[in-house]
Amino acid sequence: MDRFVQFTTYGLTLACVLVLLGLGWVVIHQVSGVLNLAQGSFLVVGGLTTTSLAGPVGLPLAVLAGIAAAGALAVVLDRALLRPARPSGPGGPIIVTLGAALVIAEGARGIWGVDPLLLEPFLPRDPVNVLGAPVLPHALLLWGGTAVVVAGLYLLFEKTLLGRALLACAQNPDGLRLSGTDPLGLRTLAFLLAGVLAGIAGVLLVPVTPIGWESGLLLGIKGFIAAALGRWTYPGAVVGALVLGLAENYAAGYLSSAWKESVGLGLMLLILIARAYAGGDGGAGPKDRLLAAFRPRAGAVS
Hints:
Elements: H1 2-32, H2 39-57, H3 59-82, H4 91-112, E1 128-130, E2 133-135, H5 137-159, H6 161-171, H7 173-178, H8 183-205, H9 215-229, H10 234-254, H11 260-278, H12 286-292
Antiparallel strand pairs: 1-2
């Protein structure tokens, strides 16, 4: 029982990071139709920026700087690279964001070096007992911080005009234009929000697990899997992240650590096969349906 609880706590820690990444994937895809392979890179920039500035400027300012850097990088990616790539077809944004992820990774290696960095935990290191398993207090902070962010997003989308405008932008951008609201401005806001979510994930993760320049792409893909498991909805991304985080750690704990990464990749393969054979236009063949899994939505702002 103690092992199960321990694997569950480890899984929840990973799942919280994937919740924030998955929600970032959803908000960008819902508004713009872009599949942003650089989402994990924003996490790396947020976490490493915070780590490098914590000593010189103090932890509070370093946290704000890390989150701001991730958000600003997301906006630059959209305005400087993705919007000019619109005429290149549905595959253009995927290539652009993949290239951006690789460039950001190389830039991070040049700035912070090849060795992963770890930040001193915000809370004491002495573990606390949770149902018989030792848990770092910072892990509890990560869980609580993620819950607060998810609750804040719920209030944003359900209780504010801005959140309703973002949802309307996803559902009917032409109608939004007729109401006098600029969908491109909301698209910029969506990228900013996704970058901020990834930055928060990086800030909360780096005191628990070392983050290196190469960490972004794999974490970003896991965020994609969580979003896809949740059928590109906000509540679904949360559930998908919990499923993926727990499944990876149960596989690593009860089988072998070699199986940990295979779980996510296996789920992604199953998602693509299921969408290829069970979704989309009934007259389309499996190949067309598989390609449709990576195409922007019809109503997306481009």
